[in-house]
Amino acid sequence: QSVLTQPPSASGTPGQRVTISCSGISSNIESNTVDWYQQVPGTTPKLLFYSGDQRPSGVPDRFSVSQSGTSASLAISGLQSEDEADYYCAAWDASLHARVFGGGTRLTVL
Amino acid sequence: EVQLVQSGAEVKKPGESLKISCQGSGDSISSYWIAWVRQRPGKALEWMGVVYPGDSDSKYSPSFQGQVTISADDSISTVYLQWSSLKASDSAIYYCARLNGYYQTNGMDVWGQGTTVTISS
After folding, report:
1. B45 Cβ contact list (under 8 Å, min separation 6)
2. How far apart are CA B49 and CA A98, in angstroms?
3. Exposure string (b/e) for B42-65, b if CB count within 10 Å is 16 or more?
4. Which of B61, B106, B111 lies at the smallest CB-CB distance from A45?
5. Structure confidence at residue A40 (pLDDT)
6. Residue B58: pLDDT band by 50, 70, 90 thresholds?
7. Nearest to B46 among A37, A47, A101 (CB)
8. CA-nearest residue of chain A to B102?
9. Per-chain mean pLDDT for chain A
10. Domains of chain A as residue ranges with CATH
């Protein structure tokens, strides 16, 4: 059981916009920024966003994030087949004194 | 740009000890926090803890405190994850990852290739 809650799956067709949610509580998302990671099955995770909306170089601007209260979300516009992957949110939890992850969302491009 | 190179896959028996490594190359890891992340087969990522190689300060997730030891040898740019008595439930891929700032507020931007640990009698 992950501390942060994500839907287990999401899907969309090429060109569509999809959103993946991440829900937490006051000790994590409400008081700290969220990171997002992309993991193509069988490969190493890749950082998509950190410290809220900071995007590492190389991450396409088709990807965007938002955060409010105890929730955060990742949006992917102009969906491409290469976006098919697992997506994880993470945040520092001040009560647990640990970084906590969501359970991951498997994105399928139909 | 730093790369993190992890030690190879391990197959161990329950009760055995194990120490896996993660070496930085291309740049010093002295002034970066390095995290260990577990991924059991088909499961989500789990943050185990971090170490600061510059002074070997380490922090643990409550879920892993007392179960593993995270250490570093700054002289060879290497961090370690070790177990004193393995369990079948420790079977997983273990990743090391560099944090791009303070461990509480920043993401993991450089990842090792992962070390697969298999525990089987």
Report:
1. A37, A39, A45, A88, A90, A101, A104, B37, B38, B39, B95
2. 7
3. eebbbbbbbbbbeeeebbbbeebe
4. B111
5. 97
6. very high
7. A101
8. A51
9. 96
10. 9-109 (2.60.40.10)
Span B23-44, pLDDT tens digits: 999 888 889 999 999 999 999 9
pLDDT of residue B89: 97
Q: What is the pLDDT of residues A47-67, one digit of tens each?
A: 999 988 999 999 999 999 999
| d(CA B30, nearest CA chain A) in Å | 21
Q: Name the closest residue on chain A to residue B113, using Cα atoms.
A: A44
Domain boundaries, chain B: 3-119
Instruction: Looking at the structure, give the CATH architecture of the domain made up of residues B3-119.
Output: Sandwich (2.60)
Identify which of B66, B111, B70, B114 has the alpha carbon closest to the alpha carbon of residue B94: B114
Instruction: Name chain B contacts of A39, Cβ cutoff 8 Å.
Output: 45
